[in-house]
């Protein structure tokens, strides 16, 4: 039925547009966090940056292990 196909295409298009909006919003929030992090890192010494990077690496490893365990 042509009406069903048209309705399906409209709903499908709406979902695609919402997904695109969500992706753009997420990217904007990520970019904002990157800028905030850069500003924060500019105000600390290189030894503090090294500690911070090591800490973030450990957090990443923990999340990765949890991800594997929870599968």
Summary keywords:
elongated, mainly alpha, about 70 residues
Question: What report would you give on this structure?
Answer:
- This protein starts with a helix and ends with a helix.
- The chain is mostly helical and 71 residues long.
- The relative contact order is 0.05.
- It contains two helices and no strands.
SSE arrangement:
Blueprint: H1 2-42, H2 46-69
The whole-angstrom Rg is 21 Å
Query: Low-confidence segments, ≥5 residues, pLDDT <50?
Result: none
Give, in order, the helices and strands. HH
Instruction: State which percent range the strand residues make up.
Output: under 5%
How helical, in percent, are the residues? over 70%
What's the short version?
With 71 residues, the chain is an all-alpha fold. It has two helices and no strands.
